[in-house]
Amino acid sequence: MTDTGIVALLDGTLLDPTAPLLRGDDLGVLRGEGVFETTLVVDGRPRDLDEHLARLSRSARLTGVEVPGPDRWRTGVAAVVGAWTGASEMVLRLVASGGPDGGSPVCYLLGSGLPAVSRRQRRDGVRVLLLDRGFTVASGSAAPWLLAGAKTLSYGINMAALRYARANGADDVIFVGADGAVLEAPTSSVVVARGRTLVTPPEDAILAGITVRRLFRAAADAGWQVRTEPVTPADLTTADGVWLASSARLLAPVVAIDGRPRPDGGSTAELAALLQTPA
């Protein structure tokens, strides 16, 4: 393991992480063509790997990128995990870049340390801005070319939103559709608490949240009610708690919305424990 992380091919071959891997005419570089997944490895165990591999395959189908099946990725996963000698938490990325025009995708895995900011946001929370996403929930089915439910390499809008948030005194963003429906964050899903009920927006125009599913299963077993239903900006204000859930950061309480502080309702520690968040 080096400061730049670990890079491996699907067959388990470890590569020099500082050496070039993609050609200049790779469609992932030129057009953002490609798909990826990110998950957390804790003490050598990837979290929800089966679900991430299934979502990678789904994203590939939606984008027309032909990637190897889930079993082909596991050898590479094992190689990266086995070579890791850093902290107990490692961020694992599975990437399929589009490849040269007319060629096969370039598939590889990348292991790196969990950023300190992710741990800090788990503990201290995030300040968010509500930003217009530019389409409605109905766009998910009516305009499949928008790829609202695919995890692609085209992250320009998401990164621009995060830069805008940081330039305006916030840490993150919650996207709102043109119809007023809460959608998702650039790299996270939204979870709202109403008493002992957890709610997350429908998956019609957003990426299916693997961490939310894990949380909802554990919460239901612990006596919470869980629902998937529309959420509005007003709901975010009146809720007993709001969180951003993602595969690496896991769970971050929202402590301010558009500059107005909001409490987390005292449930963050319980929900983090249900997610088996590392200490």
Shape: globular
* Named CATH architecture of the largest domain: Alpha-Beta Barrel
Name the poorly predicted regions: none
The CATH topology of the largest domain turns out to be: D-amino Acid Aminotransferase, Chain A, domain 2
Average pLDDT score: 94
Distance between the termini: 23 Å
Beta-strand share of residues: 25-35%
What composes the largest sheet?
Answer: 8 strands, mixed
Please write the CATH class name of the largest domain: Alpha Beta
> How would you classify the helix and strand content by structural class?
alpha+beta
Report Rg: 19 Å
Q: Number of helical segments? A: 9
Binned, the helix content reads 25-40%
CATH superfamily of the largest domain: D-amino Acid Aminotransferase, subunit A, domain 2
Please tally the β strands and state the result: 14
**Please, how many domains?**
2
Describe what this molecule looks like in 3D:
- With 279 residues, this protein is α+β, with helices and mostly antiparallel strands.
- 30% of the residues lie in helices and 27% in strands.
- The strands form two sheets. Strands 7, 8, 9, 10, 11, 12, 13 and 14 form an eight-stranded mixed beta sheet that branches. It has a six-stranded antiparallel beta sheet with strand order 2-1-6-5-3-4.
- A hairpin with an 8-residue loop joins β5 and β6 (106-113).
- 42% of the residues are buried.
Main features:
single chain; 279 residues; alpha+beta; D-amino Acid Aminotransferase, Chain A, domain 2; eight-stranded mixed β-sheet; six-stranded antiparallel β-sheet; 30% helix; 27% strand
